[in-house]
């Protein structure tokens, strides 16, 4: 039997960030690795997920998830290999998806881990296109926004893990037009040339409202919001009568130190009878089987494409997180710890 590790490194939050997170708000610490108890497994993590929602959990405020504790390990999505098991259904060598990321080793309750098959899809896909971000895109478009064939769809943050999948699903489901915004010319080209968006623009090139009006002169039926702020205001202006918006994220204001103003045209919601609905992916778990079946088939056929931005080494996990908030990533941002 291979000897189990005695120590491993994990990222702790040591101070609540004010504005943009700083390196001194975090510490990479070496801690003892314990053997799994009854019903538990010991996992060596190989891939960690960094996601926008994690920024909110660094604040000590009431939200849909509890804040990260100070001087304790953070958590998030991870894929790893089982080293030891005291849980029925798991054996050493199994690959699992679980929620105790930001660390090299994790003792996980078997009920909170799911076996994944690297033969069906690359392991990183279970953190992105076939994972939480993928289900967010699928449910947010089809269920929350009540997408219908023929709808014109606008997606902000469209080159990210969620946005890129929203646009492609809309296209595959028969959208009349798919428009995306991104933060670089390279990402704009990716949206139109690889992901099949009908139009895309760089939001840094000018007012979003003007660029959106040019890209969608007849207006939009659905807006999928990953950004908030100026993008949301522009979308409200472009939405048609009875338009729908899924409010998934507002990354533009996660690091704001002062309250941000609401869209100045919010009164248009009344006359246009718009529906703006926030979403959490945890409310849509019932769609999981349908989502995996449909999206995995699109991946196998090549109809749905995805990208990952991989940062190597747990030492660089904070930098990966910060880069994701800045929009440095194309597609899902993951941290690879090695096989």
Main beta sheet, described? 7 strands, mixed
**Mind telling me the CATH class of the largest domain?**
Alpha Beta
Number of helices: 9
CATH superfamily of the largest domain: Medium-chain alcohol dehydrogenases, catalytic domain
Q: Helical proportion?
A: 25-40%
Give the radius of gyration. Answer: 21 Å
Give the overall shape, derived from the CA principal axes: globular
Tell me the number of structural domains.
2
Question: What's the CATH architecture name of the largest domain?
Answer: Alpha-Beta Complex
CATH topology of the largest domain: Quinone Oxidoreductase, Chain A, domain 1
Mean pLDDT, all residues? 94
Query: What is the element string, with H for helices and E for strands?
Result: EEEHEEEEEHEHEHEHEHEHEHEHE
Pick out the low-confidence regions.
none
- Structural category is alpha/beta
- Straight-line N-to-C gap: 19 Å
